[in-house]
Amino acid sequence: MSRSITSAFNTAITNAVVQPIVGIELEFSDGTLRMWNGYGSLTMTAGGSSKVFTGAGDMLGLSEIEESDTLSMSGVTLTLAGIKSSLISTALGANYTNRKGAVYLGLFDTSKNVVADVYTLFKGNMDVLNISEGSETTVVQLKLESRLVTFEKASNRMYTFEDQKIDFPNDLGFEFIPDLQDKEIIWGKKTN
Q: Please, what's the largest Cα pairwise distance for the chain?
């Protein structure tokens, strides 16, 4: 599989000392949440545009991201521990199911500047959000599923005139489908 990385990113990743950073972007219904695994605010060019990510420090965890040469549907689990109660209320109140999420890999250069155009490690849709509250800490786990999962879902659409009118009200292409159900078609037989 080919990789689209900039020459600056390629140079930084082949250095003797590599300083990786991970950023996440989650599009909740009431706004987009961007966090990275460090402290303070950080501006990165991710997904083609410059974006500001808020530092989550070592509170941000990420499961293994698998890659395969086949069309497999592996996901990734994001873990946030010790987060603010305002973020928990956002997670509980906002719609997140089937909304977009992404994980980015970036690099610092020797001057602690982000190398141009971070690499997209994973893109998918938010699926399951679990909140575990303990006596001292709260842990939020969010599962991002591969976009390939949508191929497994039934479309629940039919080839009927009524169903076609949902998307194309003036299309008459399926108008005669009901007449074809009981139509006798003579095939391969000589007719008069």
A: 89
Structure token pair of residue 125: 């849709």
Q: What angle do CA 26, 36, 113 make, to 5 degrees?
A: 130
- In this predicted structure, the answer to whether residue 178 has a pLDDT above a threshold of 50 is yes
DSSP string, 25-61: EEEETTEEEEEESSSSEEEEEETTEEEEEEE-GGGEE
Q: What percent of the chain has pLDDT over 90?
A: 2
Q: If phi over 0 gives left and psi between -120 and 50 gives alpha, with beta otherwise, what is residue 175?
A: alpha
Name the residue ranges covered by the structural domains of the chain. Answer: 7-152
Is residue 44 within 8 Å of 22, Cβ to Cβ? no
H-helix segments, 28-74:
none
Return the pLDDT at 114: 86
